[in-house]
């Protein structure tokens, strides 16, 4: 029975697991997406989402708590400046796990974990409006006719 066992040990000792998750979290914050195994991605999601929640309120205490987990000044700075600004209105669910298939070498299940607000492909909100690309002789001739009539009216 596995009652109350919430931590996936990932076949590593405690120090190795903590260091690995810290390094993966720093890479995720820096690059906004990383490829890893599904089990590590799920463990990383549980590790990094509370840190992102802490970064929404920029206090010295939250920065120190986050630095204790990440051990990287650059990652903490990026987290509190860029990432927290993007996720300020989101109530949770800051990461997304996309399964990629199996690794060729050992057939391990691979996944991509990414920060949700940094992927423009899946953004549901505002869409970028493209410029008019339609070229029609009729529309050009109407504009030309309008400018010709304005020019003739000015000359008279």
**DSSP strand tally:** 3
Q: What is the residue-averaged pLDDT?
A: 88
Structural class: alpha+beta
Strand order of the largest sheet: 1-3-2
The biggest sheet amounts to: 3 strands, antiparallel
Unreliable stretches:
none
CATH superfamily of one domain: Ribosomal protein L17
Radius of gyration: 26 Å
- State the CATH class of one domain: Alpha Beta
Instruction: Indicate the CATH architecture of one domain.
Output: Alpha-Beta Complex
The CATH topology of one domain comes to: 50s Ribosomal Protein L17, Chain: A
3D shape: elongated
Binned strand content: 5-15%
* Helix and strand sequence: HEHHHEEH
Number of helices: 5
- The percentage helix is 40-55%
Describe the protein in words.
InterPro entries: Ribosomal_bL17, Ribosomal_bL17_CS, Ribosomal_bL17_sf. One of its GO terms (molecular function) is structural constituent of ribosome. With 156 residues, the protein is of the alpha+beta class. It has a domain at 14-122: 50s Ribosomal Protein L17, Chain: A (Alpha-Beta Complex), CATH 3.90.1030. Helices cover 51% and strands 13% of the residues. The protein has five helices and three strands. Strands 1-3-2 form a three-stranded antiparallel beta sheet. Helix 1 (14-31) packs across helix 2 (38-55), helix 1 packs across helix 4 and helix 3 (60-70) packs across helix 4. The longest helix is centred in the C-terminal third of the chain and has 19 residues, at 137-155. The N and C termini lie far apart (97 Å). 17% of the residues are buried. The mean pLDDT is 88.
């Amino acid at each position: 029975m596995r009652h109350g066992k919430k931590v996936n040990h990932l076949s590593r000792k405690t120090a190795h697991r903590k260091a690995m998750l810290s390094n993966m979290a720093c890479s995720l914050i820096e690059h906004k997406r990383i490829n890893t195994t599904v089990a590590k991605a799920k463990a990383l999601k549980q590790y990094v989402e509370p840190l992102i929640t802490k970064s929404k309120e920029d206090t010295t205490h939250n920065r120190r708590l986050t630095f204790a987990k990440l051990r990287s000044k650059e990652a903490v700075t990026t987290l509190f400046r860029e990432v927290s600004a993007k996720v300020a209105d989101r109530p949770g669910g800051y990461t997304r796990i996309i399964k990629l298939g199996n690794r060729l070498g050992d057939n391990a299940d691979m996944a991509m974990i990414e920060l949700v607000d940094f992927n423009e492909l899946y953004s549901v909100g505002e869409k970028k409006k493209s410029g008019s690309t339609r070229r029609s002789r009729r529309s050009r001739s109407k504009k030309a006719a309008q400018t010709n009539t304005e020019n003739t009216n000015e000359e008279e």
